[in-house]
Amino acid sequence: MSGVRNITVPWVPLDEFDWSFARTGPLPWNLTVWSIIAVFTALPIWTTVELTFWVFYTFERWRGVYFYSVLGTTWGVTIHAVGFVLKFCVPEANWILSTVLSEIGWVAEVCGFSIVLWSRLHLVIPSHTRILRYVLAMIVLDEIIVGIPTIVFQFLISNSATHDTYLQHMEIMERVQIMVFSVQETIISAIYVWGTLQLLKLSLNTKAKTTLAFLIIVQVIVVLADVLVVALDYLEYYTLKAVLHSFVYAFKLQVEFVVLNEFKHIAKGGITGNGGSLGEVPGGFFFNNQPLDTPKISGDPMHNNSGVTVVNSARGSPSSRTTGSDVSRAPNENAQEPDPLELQYLGRYGRAM
Asked: Which of 228, 227, 147, 217 is nearest to 189 (CA)?
């Protein structure tokens, strides 16, 4: 067969395999190593296909920061995985092309997922508070201060002519960036957990309390996933970390859809209302910028000065619904159309009933 070349790579036992930045050239042959690469590359790619369908099916409106950040992160997972497969497993692949793909995917994964977390904060943190601006500023600054130098060093060590010169700098930069972005996601997750805890304090619905507690556990699992990536990086298992990186973010995106599905129950249970944000002030809690007075539950719907109506469900457990300030509404007028927040963030599954 003309045009076909056989490329021979050396076999290296697993206990002698070099996972660090110092290794150059084609990836040595080891069945275990190549099997790991195959598995943890195929899984993110398949996840991208699956999540792409779910994104377009779940979201009622195909626009907004949350929609584009989820979609961008989803495809960043695959682009990152393909870039590293070319770099590690295809000796004849152009190093510029493989590095461009891997770095575009890396930015889409890391920065994109932080934007996903920031967008979701609007469900539990009042939109007018400065904390949301501070979080967004942190994401942008970290990408500029840490992300850009990391990309530059990645190109320098990918070029065989400059690899040895900048190897030591890249090793330092790699540890800095993995820690900075992991701490960043942990901070955003901690704020989300805090906001969810405030909802737990206000919830009069037992089902909603269970759902919110579950969301906190899910968020802790997401944070623990970063521990694996950081540990591999600091142990100099860079090649293994690079392969698992796409899989970890694919897992985080799967968890994100679990969160969206659970927020469906919250919307139905009635914690979010018109505007969708609950918060805390020195004098107590507020809803939609108004003080929140939790009423006592009786057989009839109760109204408070927050614009939230508390009603008894068919099973007797209390739940809250968003109403206007008019307490004389007829019972059949209590059903509300989905507010803009639910439509933007929860899509067809978040409609209040």
From this structure: 217
